[in-house]
Amino acid sequence: MAIVIPRPQLSFAEKLYFVEIFKGLALTIGHAFRTLTKVDTLETLDYPEVQPDLPQDYRSRHRLMQRPDGSPRCVACFMCSTACPARCIEIVAEESDNAHVEKRPKVFDIDLLLCIYCGLCVEACPCDAIRMDTKQAILVEDAREKFIIDKDSLLDWKPSDYPDHDEISQQAPGGLKHAAALAAFQSGDQH
Ligand code: SF4
Ligand code: SF4
After folding, report:
1. Residues 100, 103, 104, 108: is their CA dihedral positive or negative?
2. Does some domain include residue 142?
3. H or E stretch at 110
4. From atom 3 of ligand 1, which residue's Cα is the shortest distance away?
5. Is residue 98 part of a domain?
6. Contact in structure between 104 and 96 (CB atoms under 8 Å)
7. d(CA 103, CA 140)
């Protein structure tokens, strides 16, 4: 059913517009004045020396998750690259040496200059192999090709940079739960 939204009735002063424009200007100038007279209370960072502390779920640069033996959890299913609206993920698959996994990525490149940080690749992945929780959101390089990140750089992260309750991250080499996870992985209980 259609909802009728009544058009607001403007007073004579509002119809003139000038009054409203000056009210808006007064508000803006008031905020600017308060800001300039209380500089020490401004919430600013000494950027870029001090980087902002972004929340863990902020959609930032990607990483590839690792199995307990350090190999990528990715099974080269192409779901992420198919879902990617920017077509910026390039995957080349090869046969996996893990008896429980058919394929693994030989090449896994993401062009961060094309990426629109929509997170659809993360949503599409059936095995939690790709995440965007590195908090690396301010990327600066001196050449365009340096924005194409490969499999090795996507796998280059430390469990200590992620919360203790992040089970999958802590099962990676160097993580709090790595020893138990590696034992389960080597015994075949975990793939
Ligand atoms: S965040 Fe979006 S645009 Fe970027 S790689 Fe993932 S699916 Fe593609
Ligand atoms: S990251 Fe996930 S969705 Fe993308 S190819 Fe690997 S397993 Fe498939």
Report:
1. negative
2. yes
3. strand 103-111
4. 115
5. yes
6. yes
7. 33
Q: Which of 65-92 are b and which e, b meaning 16 or more Cβ less than 10 Å from the residue's Cβ?
A: bbbbeebbbbbbbebbbebbeeebbebe
- Provide the CATH number for the domain around residue 115: 3.30.70.3270
- Determine the residue type at 4: V
The alpha carbon of 74 and the centre of ligand 2 are apart by a number of angstroms equal to: 5
- Domain membership of residue 79 (yes or no) is yes
Give the range of the structural domain holding residue 100, as residue numbers without chain letter: 63-176
Between CA 176 and CA 191 the distance in angstroms is 18
Those residues of the chain that have pLDDT short of 50 are: none
Is the link from the previous residue into 48 a cis peptide, with omega within 30 of 0?
A: yes
Q: Does residue 51 lie within any of the structural domains?
A: no
Q: What is the pLDDT of residue 84?
A: 98
Its pTM stands at 0.79
Q: Give the atom of ligand 1 at the shortest distance from the alpha carbon of 124.
A: 7
Q: Whose CA is nearest to atom 8 of ligand 2?
A: 77
